[in-house]
């Protein structure tokens, strides 16, 4: 039982923080970066590749580093602290994670090797109009003709779908179930647009578009998608923790410096108590997300699914609380795009809705509430 | 980072679980689990069973019965005890005055009191709060004036929990009225049978008699009953209140009550809003339990983890929320608090509202939750 980083993990955190502070320590840099396409810094992405961060989760044979979930969580946490717009979660954790889990040795080597090197951006094209965080695909279907596969239907929103060289697309299989396919970005019709958090998403239309099955053709990969979505939820949670930490720090700093009625805001107990409650939300969310990160290491998909929902619910509550209060305690300045704290709230809102909001997770947990007497985190070993 | 308990801690956990579920009287554990009130005799019997096995005061110095456990082991001990429905050792003895005497008292005083305190041969009461000195404890007015070898005590204490059972009371008294209010306070131990000492019950909203007023009218206390140095009471009180906050989030108990709520609720627990409410509470309790584990797992260097201040605040809120759930699950039957054995209603429903009302105290005592927010804002956030 240990909730602290070891020396190597500390060193990784320091290195990542150093890189990202250089890139986005000044919030204005983040703002300018997100104004121009593709909404993130290609230079920072390349530097992340050089540092080995883009290959962190993948096996060394596939061109990766072979690190564990705690290391990935550290990177996500640091990205969250500066609300970095780089699509690490989407390209590395989700799309890359699926290639690593389901791809053939050849596909892994080719796709992950170039992803890790920063030469190829992957996007995970999974959400569909009308879908709500399910692992199955319905609106896009796959057909096979003499060993050649083609996809038809619309995926949206696909984060960084217009910029990515390669898409990992989920689709309904002819015999049922959901498969995964590798599609060349140029082969589909893509309409990109900015999102409120400064990111980019796209509508991707497939029209009998040529696709290569990821791994063995025709295999139902719903369970693999579900697992990677759960992993993504926990990593998004780590990213949200970083954002919440800084949003709270900015709020407390503001309460100390801003004067009204001739005195600092921190002299008003009504305000300091609300900041204290933000801290409580953050600490409780931190505990659950760190625990869930450790549950990933057990490799048990059932335990992971439960932990992801629990982390998702806690982060949803905390993210809304911390984000909303951060703006309120800042007053009008918190509403401006020039000032960082509102963007932190935007990013927290995006992270929550990317992979499942609090109500979604609570409904799932409520449905299973009769299956256990009490929860024992120490039994999950 | 490592989720699993070490093999040693795992084994420790099994040992605790076995002891608590097999060695403590089944009758006492059922009383706790079913939410009925414990008698004084049951509380004493339970603590003596624990003390006989060296499990009543593991956090004391080893010389006086402590076990030199890690913080994590103490946490496991506490959680398993609550989980099994074993009454935790009387806080006034085990968590408050015991550690104070071990730290501040003379050798003679330690020998006189500590073994009997551990074994609950003496039932201690706490005499800190006064009508005008609650959260602002330093404003207390009860005086102790030197007269020959003795102290003469006059004044009034209030909210003296279970004072009707008390043999002795540890008090904070003003021994120097002419200095800054924190500087003129001392701690005295007072035999509650001394002439001039009167205990009067305070009736509470749950209909029970749990707290009391204690009046001192020229109560003569031997000079040797002073704890530590003269006028060092404030330092001692801060030490005691620091201990009081450790383990103040009753996670094990609240988990047990919530698990019981689910089983008692039957089909009602499957109604969507009720199921969601239960799932939400379970998740919040998980967050609290994990936070408690983070605190104990990371405080090995003796410095408390900053998040420890969250535990009292959130722990008592959840304790209250689960008691509220029980009332709602009982529905109209929750009104029948005074029903006797002839009642046609399920017995558990009688206890739900008194428990809910009684637990409103949890966010007030031990430093009210507003005080906890103040601590977080000041000492953690620097506001």
TrEMBL record, chain A:
Residues 225-346 form the Acyl-CoA dehydrogenase/oxidase C-terminal domain. It comes from the Bacteria. Its cofactor is FAD. Its EC number is 1.3.99.-. Residues 7-119 form the Acyl-CoA dehydrogenase/oxidase N-terminal domain. Keywords: FAD, Flavoprotein, Oxidoreductase. Belongs to the acyl-CoA dehydrogenase family. PANTHER family: ACYL-COA DEHYDROGENASE (PTHR43884), ACYL-COA DEHYDROGENASE FADE28 (PTHR43884:SF20). This is Acyl-CoA dehydrogenase. The gene is acdA_2.
Automatic annotation (TrEMBL), chain B:
InterPro entries: Acyl-CoA_Oxase/DH_mid-dom, Acyl-CoA_Oxase/DH_mid-dom_sf, AcylCo_DH-like_C, AcylCo_DH/oxidase_C, AcylCoA_DH/ox_N, AcylCoA_DH/ox_N_sf, AcylCoA_DH/oxidase_NM_dom_sf, Mycobact_Acyl-CoA_DH. GO terms for molecular function: flavin adenine dinucleotide binding; oxidoreductase activity, acting on the CH-CH group of donors. Its EC number is 1.3.99.-. Gene3D superfamilies: Acyl-CoA dehydrogenase/oxidase, N-terminal domain, Butyryl-CoA Dehydrogenase, subunit A, domain 2, Butyryl-CoA Dehydrogenase, subunit A, domain 3. The keyword Flavoprotein applies. Keywords: FAD, Flavoprotein, Oxidoreductase. Residues 7-119 form the Acyl-CoA dehydrogenase/oxidase N-terminal domain. Residues 231-380 form the Acyl-CoA dehydrogenase/oxidase C-terminal domain. Its cofactor is FAD. SUPFAM superfamilies: Acyl-CoA dehydrogenase C-terminal domain-like, Acyl-CoA dehydrogenase NM domain-like. GO terms for cellular component: plasma membrane. It holds the Pfam family Acyl-CoA_dh_1. Residues 127-219 form the Acyl-CoA oxidase/dehydrogenase middle domain. The keyword Flavoprotein applies. PANTHER family: ACYL-COA DEHYDROGENASE, ACYL-COA DEHYDROGENASE FADE29. Belongs to the acyl-CoA dehydrogenase family. This is Acyl-CoA dehydrogenase. It comes from Nocardioides dokdonensis FR1436. The gene is mmgC_3.
